[in-house]
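Budget justification, computational time. The allocation requested in the original proposal was used primarily to generate structure tokens for proteins on the priority list. As evidence of use, we reproduce two of the resulting records. The first is shown immediately below.
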Amino acid sequence: MSRKTELLITVGGDALLLSAAFFISWKSSDISYSILSARSITANCIILLYWLFIFQSANLYLTRAKIQLMTELSRMFQTIVIGLIVIIATALIIEIDFIRVRGFGPAYAIALSSLLIWRFFWRGLVGEYVSPRRGKVIIFHNGDVTQEPSQFNVVQRVSLSKYRQAREQLLRNNDIDGILIDSNGIHKEEVLKVISNFAETKYEIYVSPKLYPIIYHYSLVEKIDNSPFLKIVFHPLSRWDRFLKRLIDIAISLISLAVLSPVLALISILIKLETPGPIFHIQRRVGLRGKRFSLFKFRSMVSDAEKHTGPVWAEKNDKRITRIGNIIRPYRLDELPQIINVLKGEMSFVGPRPERPAFVDHFRRTIPFYGLRLTVHPGITGWAQVKQAYDQSFDDVRKKLQFDLEYINNISIQLDMKIFLKTVLTVMKREGAH
């Protein structure tokens, strides 16, 4: 059975039972409108889309081969409970009468339990009788193969030393699911370069157990059922947590722009009055999976500060910094316009700082695993920023990479809140700025 067929049946079954639960509950209540009325059909469509959306956000539409049945059922139960709470709370706030009508709520909650029964039998049937589709991979090796990977379809075998050419081929070939690195661990630098380069792509990366001593410092791994190979997990956030993180970013962005608008206006006026040139300094930066975007900052230096030098780091007591710049930089006020980047989805409030393309290209070539920073959205602040000052050398970049990888491997909403509070304290103490 193909993944598309399995997904279609799973979503179709959910949609059918969700609609049935709604109409049965509507009929069981004292609502005077017919179940075929425009009100009933419209309400059902809205709630159906709502459920399918939060099921998707909770990772409930993965293929059977990628889930544990009881884990999925537990997650579905939790999602249904949270979803019902949101529906009831929303109904009470905006006074939707049909939710309050006697009989609808209890009948709807009971009817939704049919989803758990359906998933148990359907997913169990697929797991028991349908062979999972074998992923298509390219194997990178150095001549010492662990064993033939029976759970994968091997499309091509490539020497570790030729990973650059293979990477371009893989990115052009959408029929590939990922790569598998099968090495005895002797060529450590080549292994790290392969993982770092492919980390920026959408493809899965699998490694042989012999490589675990090499990679465990840099990333998490996940055991694959009935397989000697390990899957690299670049950050542990579930799709639901990523969705919540994005919601929090949007909410904080909108509130911040509303509250800080007088401050933003004042800084804009002072910059314009002091020196000729634009209010904003716009730079091209590298974001999630290597995508480039325009980052906004208040201009804190003279215009064309890098005209004759090209991209360089700011130094302590840098003569290019204006008087207004000397005031706003220690308090990181020059970073405030990046709230727009967060609202656009190019950045998050917390994450590794985005770097300029010229620096990223150099770091990719010289620092192993630098590309792992690009597996999450860049941030206005981050773990590295509260632990260390601005970069002034390549050694600083190497040190900060360790903090960035530590953040990526432990990323959570709670850690984001901790970093956000530490950033506030750092700014108040005027630490790490120049």
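The second record produced under the same allocation is shown here.
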Amino acid sequence: MQEKPIAVVTGGAGFIGSHMTDRLLKAGYVVRVVDNLSGGRGSNLAHHSRNPDLSLDTQDICKLPANSPLFKNVQLVFHFAGIGDIVPSIEQPTEYMATNVQGTVRVLEATRHGGGRGVQRLVYAASSSCYGLAETPTREDFPIQPQYPYALSKYFGEQAVLHWGKVYGLPVNSMRIFNAYGPRVRTTGAYGAVFGVFFRQKLAGKPYTVVGDGTQSRDFVYVTDVAEAFFLAAVKGHIGEIYNIGANNPQTVLRLVELLGGETVFVPKRPGEPDCTRANIDKITQHLGWRPVVDFPSGVATMLRDIENWRDAPLWDVESIAKATQTWFEFMDPGKSS
């Protein structure tokens, strides 16, 4: 009987990582999840608790040794582990560089030493934030202009991945994710992702705190579509590539409010944020045959069925947001810092 192939998912108890784990188990892989649970949750994998093909190691990638047994005989590695959110990255840039850059290097080394010539692919979760205030729709060859340390750290991580591909012959691909959303989207103590903020406000019967005038748009892409793109990037023939993952169909914040239903209040527009994000996905469609299949209203409706999952998320209002984003305005707004 042929042994099942092995995949490692760093950050596999997190938002996208747990959906990646779902996809791999469905495809017949043995999945080894590495997650220190600082952002991920064991509950995101609870539905696989009886599956012997899944294991969870609560280890920090920053302490991952090159000879880690978790990477022994691995065929596929998906690297999602890292820290997100903009404001904390402005306040703690050293931590972001340590985790998102040096942590990535440790994953690369563990893959190189553990998998050897048996490694078929390492796929890195990069961020579209590296483009900064870019023209739209944004292609992979557009200028890189990170606006804050989080974006810079994810870009440096991508550069390390591509460098290991060139120097050590590690078969790698990098996926620049635009605005992923869907079940299990993370909720942290930091002011961040719009879905976690709005869902908690809806549960509390409070108005949605809309940034600016709400006409800014984001290229929301559903999480199972994201996981499928990563899977195809791992099993198809192209190596050493960078791919955008988006829907190429931006939605305004006011459209999200319309789908959720409820009142709004407005908070100041934040410097360093684009008015629109929109991915040009021609390359990934041509190379991998991928295109998103879940439309925005359907994705939001699916999330609303599980809205109780956001009951313990932070409840934000105008005052708490102003306090949480004070650092953002202090460092990101040239007019105020001069």
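A brief technical remark on that second record: Residues 194-218+249-276+295-333 form a domain with the UDP-galactose 4-epimerase; domain 1 fold (CATH 3.90.25.10).
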